[in-house]
Amino acid sequence: MYSVKQVSALTGATEATLRVWERRYGVVEPARSAAGYRLYDDEQVAVLRAMVALVNNGVPASLAARTVRGTSVQGHSAIPLVPGATLDLVSAAAELDPERVHAVLNEAFAATSFDDVVDGWLPAELERLGEAWQSGRISVAQEHFASAAVARHLSAHFNDAQPQGGVAVLVGLPQGGRHELMLLAFAACLRRAGVNAIYLGADVPLDDWKTVASDVGARAAVLGVHLEEDVAAAQAVVDQLTALRPPVAVRVGGARRHRISGARLLDERVSQAAAAMARDLRAGAV
Ligand code: B12
Hints:
Blueprint: H1 4-11, H2 15-25, E1 31-32, E2 38-39, H3 42-56, H4 61-68, H5 70-74, H6 89-95, H7 98-111, H8 114-134, H9 140-160, E3 168-174, H10 181-192, E4 196-204, H11 206-216, E5 220-224, H12 231-243, E6 249-253, E7 264-265, H13 270-282
Parallel strand pairs: 3-4, 3-5, 5-6, 6-7
Antiparallel strand pairs: 1-2
Helix pairs in contact: 3-4, 4-8, 6-7, 6-9, 7-9, 8-9, 8-10, 9-10, 10-13, 11-12
Residues 123, 126-127, 129-130, 133-134, 143-144, 147, 151, 176-183, 186, 222, 224, 226-227, 253-255, 266, 268-270, 273 line the site of cobalamin.
């Protein structure tokens, strides 16, 4: 077993950083000596080394923590945001208890910044939800129950934000697309950054994109592209919007965004992607 001082020397992270990573992200949970000092084992030192390597390569700590904790995600343990709290969306889904799922989401959003929740805890919990559903540990109804609660919370954050007017940005999914939660999180981030984001939601028919764009005078649009099945419909929207005069600039996010041409690719982390887009809009670079 190693003391925090030894782990600091072995990993290159300061003792204070090690404590913050433990408290804020639950990267590792060291044992305690009889006198209460932290004691780390070899496996925990290896996890912390991986975390240091990622952070040194420019990966934000919240995302690096999510990556190195991959084992715990697959091991179906809940992700702690604060010591002692188990903010476990999957268990709340399994229990079908509206108060519990509401409390889990409330605590997650209260425990850290909105950006850290939508870039770290939330996507990790959605992945766990997907694994639980795929493996049959929860039913489709239990998954829907949790997804609906997440959508309600994100919508509340969207409504609370005060955009400063300005040019409209359309945000939605192409026809057939239904994975809207991270897109809604992105739209909330945009509005929190002062952008007049107009959230259209899931499964938006092709011709409606150009009608809505001209109705509201949109200068830009953002699409989520998640499954292979979404690619053709998303490409059709991009082709249609960029052919308008004046053209509507399109940006795409989601796991299949690289399959789209004629649109700018957004960062994987929704808050970073929204911040960059808000900056570009302010600079007139969209
Ligand atoms: C909730 C959910 C649903 C809900 C969605 C409800 C809603 N209101 O959004 C419903 C029930 C509708 C659904 C339906 C289906 N789903 Co589903 N779903 C999920 C689940 C559990 C979470 C989805 C989610 O929000 N993920 C968010 C993150 C975790 O996903 P991500 O792709 O890693 O995204 C990252 C980035 O790309 C980025 N990002 C994502 N979107 C955006 C947008 C922007 C703008 C930006 C900047 C970034 C960004 O953020 C993430 C973190 O970095 C996932 C599990 C999972 N692993 O994702 C399955 C999952 C995506 N679904 C899956 C499947 C198979 C389906 C269905 C085909 C099931 C069926 N047989 O009907 C349908 C397809 C519906 C459709 N036509 O689109 C599979 C997809 C497998 C694959 N081919 O890739 C998954 C992975 C589950 C699984 N393990 O099998 N689903």
